[in-house]
Structures are given as C-alpha cells and as structure tokens.
Design brief:
- The chain is mostly helical and 133 residues long.
- 40% of the residues lie in helices and 5% in strands.
- It contains three helices and two strands; from the N terminus they run αβαβα.
- A two-stranded parallel ribbon has the order 1-2.
Length: 133
C-alpha cells in the first residue's frame, strides 16, 4: 500500500468571520494566506475544503454571497499553494435533512463521514503526483 511521503494537514479558516455584520474578506484572505504560508513551510501536502450550501444564516440576506466569497478565497489560495480541495458547496450531501448538527452550523456525524470519504478520495487520487515545495 502506498503511503504519503509527508504530513497532510487541512488548512481551514474564515467561516466564523462571515457572521460579522460586515465581514472583511481581504482580512480573511490575509489570515488564511498566513496559515497556508506556515503550513506550506513544513513541506506538507496541504488540504482544504469549501463550505457547503446547507449552512444558512437567515438573518443575513447576502448569506449565499458570503459563502461564495469565502469559497472563492479558499479555491484561489488552494490553487496558488498546490492544496487539494474537497468542494462541498454543490455536493449532494447538502440535500440531506440530517446533514447539520444541532448547532445548525457544523456537519453532523454523517456529514463529517461523507466529507472524510471525499478527502480520502482526493488523497488517493494525489498519490504519486509531484508538487513544488
């Protein structure tokens, strides 16, 4: 069985910042970039994921746009840093009634299991790929 030659951390951040009255997307990107810089400096294969569309905060009428903005930041940084991305935005799991946990923010156990399975698929597909460190 093949093994990964280096650590595989997941870089994630930004979602809690979008619940501010006026999120600062430039600051979110700067903070994420610092995290990516630190993680990339370890020589690790970086992984990340986008937010799913099932996470909704009705008090913000622009909620879908906020999620889209963070997801685009994540995709852009992942591309720049050679990170693997599990894109959960349009994944069919979003249609499950039981996707979110009781806090209505985080995926339930079954949602986490689906995301973990998607991450394993991404990692399996990356075995043997070369990246610049």
């Amino acid at each position: 069985m093949a093994a990964f030659p280096r650590p595989v951390p997941t870089v994630r951040g930004g979602p809690h910042d979008i619940v501010r009255r006026k999120p600062d997307f430039d600051e979110i990107e700067r903070t994420l970039r610092q995290m990516y810089d630190l993680a990339k400096g370890t020589g690790a294969l970086l992984t990340t994921f986008t937010l799913g569309r099932a996470y909704v905060v009705p008090v913000f009428p622009d909620w879908p746009e906020r999620i889209a903005a963070v997801n685009e930041i994540v995709r852009g940084l992942a591309s720049e840093y050679g990170a693997l991305v599990v894109d959960m935005w349009d994944h069919p799991v979003n249609d499950r009634d039981n996707l979110l946990s009781e806090d209505r923010i985080h995926f339930s156990t079954s949602g986490q299991a689906v995301m973990a399975a998607e991450m394993v698929k991404k990692l399996a597909g990356s075995l043997g790929r070369t990246t610049s460190a």
